[in-house]
Design goal:
Blueprint: E1 4-5, H1 8-15, H2 19-27, E2 39-40, H3 41-51, H4 58-62
Antiparallel strand pairs: 1-2
Helix pairs in contact: 1-2
Length: 66
């Protein structure tokens, strides 16, 4: 069962990034909420890692584990 949360702040905390970073990634289209408006933590983390700039993102360096 996927790990879901409606809270952007909680999603960012679980992923290990700032709320601002999560909001920016959503605004630029790198990530998206589920159709019901919740965050799927695993899918969001995976998408952030896939689209991360390896020179800037700690997620790219860690492979997204966290």
């Amino acid at each position: 069962m996927p790990e879901l949360t409606a809270s952007t702040r909680e999603a960012a905390r679980r992923i290990g990034i700032t709320e601002a970073a999560l909001r920016k990634a959503e605004a630029t289209g790198r990530i998206a909420r589920e159709p019901d408006g919740q965050w799927n933590i695993d899918d969001t983390r995976r998408r952030l890692v896939e689209t991360a700039d390896p020179h800037r993102s700690p997620l790219a360096l860690s492979g997204g584990s966290g």
